[in-house]
Write a structure and sequence with these properties.
mainly alpha, two-stranded antiparallel sheet, 2 strands, Na/Glc_symporter_sf, sodium, ion transport, sugar transport, Na/solute_symporter_CS
């Protein structure tokens, strides 16, 4: 955690935090490599370390299909979806639907639904998984560990804006990869190499398989015969290949191409070539979870079979505090027991980095949704300072609700965290993906025809709406009240304004021509031909790698 502190502090200084565009879109000046790292870090939280390893320990490598499917979907994100969003001049995904369909209710509906998904599947799950690791490594109470994590994470999210989040994600991605590679090396050395790993996993059966007069079905504790195959039988498979191929693609389309957390990083890019290059970098990084998360989780089952593969409720409760299963402790247990003292601290930093990178991304994007799509409807003439303050206060509300939901996460889906996450998103994600696909590919579909909401009849409303350039850059004040100048402020007032990102002076009002030039710049999707060809070639290579990996482990 301390390793990434300099990045957080420097990001607070260099990021443009004093405008809505600076806080929510990093001024649209980001280059490809921090975008790619942030896309990966935003997706790979501590929930992946705990969830992927736990499901891998229970069922084998098929869960890695969720990660490798993204290699194809990020191509659609960079080449198809983001250019449309940029040309539309939007900041949030619900705002795009409002512009596309013409009504407001669908925008509000998607904003609220997205916030609920963040609370129930992202924030609470990440906090729970990170707290599991800290609880095992340091012996702290679960909720005390959560409070400490949130205090640190919330501080630099609230004060830093999107630029701080992206810069921090970049360093934390490096920490995650270095630490996870080291642990993977220790794990394979301990088990005796890849061939021994395959043999020993199939024999990793717990010693206690009955309690009282009850004999547990062998299917509950015996490794699956297809544990080392991604594509499994369409009828008997736990992850049938049609669902993994087609159903998961729909779910991934929602997550990677329409979710605010992911798309917001791409919208911060300085041009389309940087968007595409960032997506390609993220795609290559998504190859790694199979080898540094799923397989180490399977090795943990070999080394700690009675704990990780426990099936007797009383035994499970003794090992991990829950009766439904202990597969979630597969990765943390291996870190605590397998790593030497110095490297154990590094892995603690890895888990904290993955947790905080994911949480900060969600916090920033959730505050963007609330501020730009909900709060502006309540306070249509809110000043820029009020909008930024509302977004930061909303983060605190998200934290409280998520903590209250953690007990539900703890007991859900037989102790397999990743299954809990997917069970919720599988119900709510596909309808959202369908709406966006219809919005992009079917011009005749409107809000009234689609049957979700009604279209506003009166387009000439008397209320004042925010233009795209006003939302993005804060070019004009949305409050007629005069702001107090810096010259009239005391030292404490200036320090408070700097800390909260209110230190920017009110800029001059732009002329109509200047506003048109600025809007054209913010919606430009043109590329330099040379770099366009470079990223296109690399995109084709990424698709070829995706096909090869799926075929090799099919």
């Amino acid at each position: 955690m301390s390793d990434s502190l300099p990045a957080r502090l420097s990001a607070m200084f260099i990021s443009n935090r004093g405008t809505v565009g600076g806080f929510f879109l990093a001024g649209r000046k980001m280059v490809w490599w921090p975008i790619g790292a942030s896309l990966f870090a935003s997706n790979i939280g501590s929930g992946h370390f705990v969830g992927l390893a736990g499901t891998g320990a229970a069922a084998g490598i098929a869960i890695a299909g969720f990660e490798w499917n993204a290699l194809i979907i990020v191509f659609a994100l960079g080449w198809l979806f983001v250019p449309i969003y940029i040309r539309a001049g939007v900041v949030t995904m619900p705002e795009y639907l409002k512009k596309r369909f013409g009504g407001r209710r669908i925008q509000m509906y998607l904003s609220v639904l997205s916030l609920l998904l963040y609370i129930f599947t992202k924030i609470s799950a990440d906090m729970f998984s990170g707290a599991i690791f800290i609880q095992m490594a340091m012996g702290l109470n679960l909720y005390l560990a959560i409070i400490i994590l949130l205090a640190v994470t919330g501080l630099y999210t609230i004060t830093g804006g999107l630029a701080a989040v992206i810069y921090t994600d970049t360093l934390q991605t490096i920490i995650m990869l270095v630490g996870s590679f080291i642990l993977t090396g220790f794990a394979f050395a301990k088990v005796g190499g890849y061939k021994a790993f395959m043999e020993k996993y199939m024999n990793a059966i717990p010693g206690n398989t009955s309690y009282g007069n009850i004999i547990i079905d062998p299917k509950c504790y015996t490794p699956r015969a297809d544990s080392f195959h991604i594509f499994r039988d369409a009828i008997t498979g736990d992850l049938p290949w049609p669902g993994l191929t087609f159903g998961l693609s729909i779910l991934a389309l929602w997550y990677w191409c329409t979710d605010q957390v992911i798309v917001q990083r791409c919208l911060s890019a300085k041009n389309m070539s940087h968007v595409k290059a960032g997506c390609i970098m993220c795609g290559y990084l998504k190859l790694l979870p199979m080898f540094v998360m799923v397989m180490p989780g399977m090795i943990s089952r070999i080394l700690y079979t009675d704990m990780v593969a426990c099936v007797v409720p009383s035994e499970c409760e003794k090992y991990c505090g829950t009766k439904v299963g202990c597969s979630n402790v597969a990765y943390p247990k291996m870190v605590v027991d397998l790593m030497p003292n110095g490297l154990r601290g590094l892995m603690l930093s890895v888990m904290l980095a993955s947790l905080m990178s994911s949480l900060t991304s969600i916090f920033n994007s959730a505050s963007t949704l609330f501020t730009m799509d909900i709060y502006t409807k309540i306070r249509s003439r809110a000043s820029e300072r009020e909008l930024m303050l509302a977004g930061r206060l909303f983060i605190l509300a998200l934290i409280g609700i998520s903590i209250a939901w953690i007990p539900v996460v703890q007991s859900a889906q037989s102790g397999q965290l990743f299954d809990y996450i997917q069970s919720i998103t599988s119900y709510l994600g596909p309808p959202i993906a369908a709406v966006f696909l219809l919005a992009i590919f079917c011009k005749r579909v409107n809000e009234e025809l689609y049957g979700l909401c009604w279209t506003l009849r009166n387009s000439e409303e008397k209320r004042i709406d925010l233009d795209a350039d006003e939302r993005i850059e804060g070019l004009e004040s949305k409050d007629d009240e005069s702001e107090e100048g810096d010259e009239g402020q005391g030292f404490l007032k200036k320090a408070y304004n700097w800390f909260c990102g209110f230190d920017q002076k009110k800029g001059p009002k732009l002329s109509k021509e200047e506003q048109e030039v600025m809007e054209k710049k913010m919606t430009d999707t043109s590329e330099v031909p040379f770099w366009r060809n470079v990223v296109n070639i690399n995109g084709v290579i990424l698709l070829a790698v995706a096909v090869f990996c799926h075929a090799f482990f099919a």
